[in-house]
Write a structure and sequence with these properties.
302 residues; DNA recombination; five-stranded antiparallel β-sheet; Recombination-associated protein RdgC; alpha+beta; 3 domains
Length: 302
């Protein structure tokens, strides 16, 4: 259940709903499987899966929610083959070339006919709300996936006054200085991965993985004007991650200090284990987010 990516948003107004009130709101868009001709279905599902039907799981003031998306899969090769056969049949029968709009209409009709027989797959995206700290955090590697979850939540609540943590922050110059001058703060350890980009339009990108970032070749790129847009680092021997230019956290790992803390707490079933993991993870990140803002000299106005 440990989050692997963090799309972090700050509330610009206090979030005042209780878990029970949020539960009622989410029921408006509870997940329902795809109907025969639905291309996809998107809604809220229980974070605890079969262990509980509740759409909101509260623990120590934090509220975990989970969005589920089911999509129908029709291979493009199947559609294209059937489409070409259909177009050829019509053109031969009517002795004319079909216009683009006609081809599009035929394709839409084919997809509609195929949907009831299509395979489907589903994915879950977890998020949690820290109403006291003023955060909502989505376990999503892409901004679009995170925004999809927030849009669904916004439909349920009517409004959702949040902004990305990096909306007014430019971490690239600071990360560049850390790498160039070897002067990262004491609680930040630079690791072995980075991505550099030229400031010029359509500038070149250099990606380094499992690479000594102290080597002269890295400094040469920085001296020639490239800036760090992704940097692997660890914080206080507690978290390891890749930070990008929008302050999105990728490939997050909770290090031994945290894992040992979780292992020391005995859980007797999946629900208790979920609570242990959620409690430790949310408490740890509640300490990390203010420090993340502080590292880039931005006052937390949440």
């Amino acid at each position: 259940m440990w989050f692997k990516n963090l799309a972090i948003y700050r509330f610009t107004e206090p979030f005042s709903l209780s878990p029970e009130e949020l539960e009622q709101k989410l029921q408006q868009h509870a997940f329902r499987p795809c109907g025969g001709h639905d291309e996809f279905s998107f809604g809220w599902t229980a974070p605890l899966g079969k262990a509980s039907d509740a759409l909101v799981h509260a623990n120590n003031g934090f509220m975990m929610i989970c969005a589920k998306k089911e999509e129908k899969v029709i291979p493009a090769s199947v559609i294209n083959e059937m489409l070409q056969d259909k177009i050829s049949e019509i053109e031969e029968r009517e002795a004319r070339k079909l216009a683009g709009k006609e081809r599009t209409r035929i394709k839409d009709e084919l997809i509609f006919d195929l949907l009831p027989r299509a395979f489907s797959f589903s994915k879950k995206t977890f998020a949690y709300i820290d109403s006291q700290g003023g955060w909502i955090v989505v376990d999503a590697a892409s901004a679009k996936k995170a925004e999809d979850v927030l849009s669904l939540l916004r439909k349920c609540l009517g409004s959702l006054p949040v902004v990305p943590i990096g909306a007014s922050i430019k971490p690239s110059p600071i990360m560049t200085q850390w790498l160039l001058n070897h002067d990262a703060p004491k609680d930040i350890l630079i690791e072995d991965e980075c991505e550099l980009r030229s400031l010029e339009d359509e500038g070149g990108i250099i990606r380094c993985k499992r690479h000594d970032l102290n080597l002269p070749e890295i400094k040469n790129h920085l001296d020639n004007g490239k800036q760090v847009i992704k940097l692997a680092m660890s914080w206080a021997d507690r978290l390891s991650f890749v930070l990008d230019e929008s302050l999105a956290v990728k490939r997050l790992k909770f290090l031994d200090l945290i894992q040992e803390q979780a292992a020391d707490i005995e859980a007797f079933d999946e629900t208790e284990q979920f609570d242990v993991d959620f409690s430790i993870m949310s408490a740890e990140l509640a300490q990390f987010f203010p420090r993340l803002l502080e590292l880039f000299n931005v006052e937390d106005k949440a």
